[in-house]
Amino acid sequence: MYEHCGKSKPIFIDERILHKAVVEQVTQDQGRRIAKAEGIHFNEVLKLRLEYRNILMIDHLWEFKSLARLDMNNNLIEKIEGLNHLGNLTWLNLSFNRIEKIEGLESLRKLEVLNLSNNRISVIENMDALEKLTHFCISNNLLGQLDNVLYLRKFKNLFTLNLFGNPVSKEDDYKCFIAAYFPKLMYLDYRLLDQKAKSEAYMKYHYVLEEMRREELQLQQDDEAKQNQEAEVKLHTDAFVEFLNGSYLFKSMLKDDPEAETLHLVPGVAHLLQTFEKQMVELCMQIFEIGLVEHKRRETEMNSFFRGQTKAVTDYQQKASQILEKFEQQHKERIVELQQLSDPDLLKVKINHYNDEINQLCNSLMALEFQLVSQLEDIIKKFDVSISEMVGNFSETVQGIFAQCRDLENNYHEKVRAFAVETLEKVAKGSPEEDMPDDAKILFTDKDTVMDALTAGHDNHLLQINDRETQLVTRVNAWKVALIKGIQDKELKQNRMRISDIHRYVDHLSEQLEELQ
Question: With CB atoms counted within 10 Å of each terminal CB, which end of the chain scores lower, N or C?
Fold first, then answer.
């Protein structure tokens, strides 16, 4: 197996290495332009090549959020890590390193090409997130179990697979096994899997494949059912009405209350309890249905806001681009003109004049930025008013329904108390109901115990109702506050970045003029 044998000492990634790598991979003209600017925007880089550098550890890549391709082959890397912020990655090459385990790929959901060849990996695992994987190369590793390769059947888009150089590739039935279990695979070890080979493999493994397909189908159906259930719970939670579509709240009110269970055995109380439960569930369902409707209204309002925000920013970018395009054309002509001047005094006059025009450009861009900020502030303010009104109306409505729940509980408590008093009198006289259970008879021999149980149950029922009301209202209001603050904070950050870009660009233009003096 290949072993990296660079003579240089191992290194760790830092800002200098990344800056140099980005500059090296652009064209010569672009390299000069970027090098003269005050820094590189790592978040705009799409490709990054860090091969043959004796890198020991994947690190410092959190700013490369737009990165689509990363090549770190032929290094000294021992662990796959530091990729959490590279969600746009479609190509990852970590071949010719010292990796022993597949891990750290959870965030790479867009990854299509993964090259882990010439490492020390013995198990294919921890790749569930790579749903878009089309090309997987893991040649010259330590894979020893052919059944372990079946892990890759979950990747429906897998087009090319390279296992050459692993112990599994030396098994007699290797090619037939892969062709049978991966009918959509087109290339194995860089060779075309023709239809004849696939047909022969299918005939050989027909019965085993059919059984496996049935098992996979059942697992898929179970997984889909679980996902649908989770999605439904998330929707209900996002609407702040989770577990209000049924008797969950009612059952929580009666939970862990043995005396209450005994009281419910008293003739007549069971019917009251059933009626109480039915009425409580109806009220909870009202809250639940209103919650889903209001959630949809809030989502619609947010989508409308974000569309308006995006349009404002897009319009700003178009206007800024027009200003810059016109200026840059003139600026190039001025640079050529200045380069041809031989009179120092005239050169100085021209440079001062062009510096004034650069300052005018800066003022124009800043004025445009101010217009955008003012426009976005108005949009955010209107959105804040609208969403606050929605949240306020929703909170007021559900509070009214929870008040009805308390009224139901008070009414139920008074009726049960009346039954209890009547039953206490009958038991005291020695004439309880004939169908009254022995546990209830024993309980009703002590008036204080019965009354205490009724009071404790009543207090607990009201507490459960109040807690659920407080939870709903508190969460929806906290959500609104966090939403608006998040939007404002993000816009402030964007504003500062745009202003920084303007100043950086203007400084770059001024430096170009200074170099001509």
Answer: C
